[in-house]
Automatic annotation (TrEMBL):
Keywords annotated in UniProt: Oxidoreductase
Native organism: Actinomadura gamaensis
Name assigned to this protein: Aldo/keto reductase
InterPro entries linked to this entry: AKR, Aldo-Keto_reductase, NAD(P)_OxRdtase_dom_sf, NADP_OxRdtase_dom
CDD domains: AKR_AKR13B1
Domain NADP-dependent oxidoreductase, first and last residues per copy: 20-291
Superkingdom classification of source: Bacteria
Length: 300
């Protein structure tokens, strides 16, 4: 079930990317990060070896993509930028579903323009069937096959290199597999393993696993990995931080796991990047896994 080592890279969208990348959402979420600080931390991440950056046009209505372009363009050949489609910004700063095929195409074009590229490396289809996040209703409840057909057409046209999925169950992943799925991005961490069946399906099909909320959250209904007593005890024994232990467990749990922790703090960035060097022996790995046995969600 687990490994005691974490190889340095994973094949992803035609490149070998470091297993710890960078999630850019926090750079525009809440509007609390100054532009120069955001640009600086993106460059620090790239300099530290994070050649996998995760973003979306709906992170600040293109603002996050603009920061990435300012910080990192012209993009090095080894860099993979993954983005998402499936939602639109609202005038009050929130999000609204945008699941229809024509909306997905428009979002792909918006990502291309804001990042300043001719082809997107990875495009996640963010399904809105269940929480966390907004839920699709009415005409926004779109059949998966129709969405995949649109993204496959964009891939055939050269506008997308690889198709990925976010917020899906195992049944939908298996249904989409014949189209070609590069990765799945679901909520998952050491203390919240409800989507473990999806991870099992990723193993089955050799799909990369990119967990979001990898250390839990302060939002209601979530636990923070860094506040767990066992995690803290393991961290003390290893001379690591609690967040590094939580990230290292994810890396050890599946060899094709890619992490995208986000931060605007250079010190936290360095801490996250160093998690790839934390080794967990089998006994410690099993001790941590016992904190939250996996549970199966309903399949749709």
């Amino acid at each position: 079930m687990t490994s005691t080592s974490t190889p340095g890279t994973v094949p992803f969208a035609g490149r070998d990317v470091a297993r710890v990348g960078y999630g850019a959402m926090q750079l525009t979420h809440g509007g609390h990060v100054a532009r120069e600080d955001a640009v600086n931390v993106l460059r620090l991440a790239a300099d530290a070896g994070a050649n996998h950056i995760d973003t979306a046009y709906f992170y600040g209505e293109g603002a996050c993509n603009a920061l990435i372009r300012e910080a990192l363009a012209p993009y090095p050949d080894e860099l993979v930028i993954a983005t998402k489609v499936g939602a639109d910004n609202t005038s009050d700063g929130g999000l609204t579903p945008a699941q229809r095929p024509e909306e997905l195409r428009r979002q792909v074009e918006a990502n291309l323009a804001s990042l300043g590229v001719d082809r997107l490396d990875v495009v996640y289809l963010r399904r809105l069937d269940f929480e966390p996040g907004i839920i699709a209703t009415g005409e926004q409840k779109v059949d998966l096959d129709d969405q995949l057909a649109e993204l496959a057409a964009l891939r055939a046209a050269g506008k997308i290199r690889a198709i990925a999925l976010s917020n899906v169950d195992a049944g939908r992943l298996r249904r989409a597999a014949p189209v070609g799925v590069e990765a799945v991005q679901n909520a998952y961490n050491l203390l919240d393993r409800a989507t473990e069946p999806v991870l099992d399906a990723c193993r089955e099909h050799g799909v990369a696993w990119v967990p979001y909320i990898p250390l839990g959250s302060a939002f209601p209904g979530y636990r923070k990995v860094t506040e767990d007593g066992t995690v803290r005890a393991v961290a003390r024994d290893l001379g690591a931080t609690a967040s590094q232990v939580g990230l290292a467990w994810l890396l050890a749990h599946y060899e094709r796991t890619l992490l995208i922790p986000g931060t605007a703090n250079p010190a936290h960035l360095a801490e996250n990047m160093a998690a790839a060097g934390v080794r967990l022996d089998p006994e410690t790995t099993a001790r941590l896994a016992a904190l939250a046995p996996p549970t199966a969600p309903s399949e749709g």
